[in-house]
Amino acid sequence: MAKDVIIACDFDSAEKTYNFLDLFENERPFVKIGMELFYAEGPQIAKEIKKRGHKIFLDLKLHDIPNTVKKAMAVLSKLDVDMVNVHAAGTANMMKAAVEGLTRADGTRPLIVAVTQLTSTDEESLKEELLIDKPMEEVVMYYADNARKAGLDGVVCSPLEAAAVHAKCGENFITVTPGVRFEEGDRGDQKRVTTPAEARRIGSDYIVMGRPITAAADPVATYIRAKKEFTGE
Ligand code: C5P
After folding, report:
1. Residue 212 CA, closest ligand 1 atom number
2. How does residue 1 score in pLDDT terms, banded at 50, 70 and 90?
């Protein structure tokens, strides 16, 4: 499994995004486009970033009836992005439909991973609002395994959960993990964090880092440092 650092480009305009990406002369980082940037700029932003030679994780977290998700995924697949995601809560039927929609006529498709439970959901809201009476870890592992059975490639999870996900779903089941900070870094609003080196030790396949890189004084040097710590190369 290729380990890589994905930079969360949480900018609100194409201009800010290109100004940031222009800093990288010799590197072509894997880029995450989230809802903010996609809704601000539309599909064109994915096409342009792809044209510049970056791999793209399109983080739109689809969750709707299977037919709608299937058709939406067929559209996203044409953008030639490298990774997309859905909410596992949409059920196995929805996830299977997502894979079907994503698969191109030649049999190729982007990677597809599932969000199990959002890290913003705590045990209390799981129980009191979602009426799920099981412990969070059990829910996350069950949803991950459901995603695997539906044919997905992996999950988005905390780096702290990566080893347990691999134990349950296999070493080849991808773990994409946000919540990564440097040892001395500001944690921002992330609570359960690890360093890139710890994420590697626990078994993350891809780490997602936003502000520690995008807000750094020298984003390129910071990205290279993250990559070195994470891949151990
Ligand atoms: O700036 P920071 O490194 O915290 O960015 C992390 C990125 O990963 C953000 O784009 C955030 O929306 C995303 N993310 C997350 N936690 C999740 C799922 C996605 O932080 N559970």
Report:
1. 3
2. low
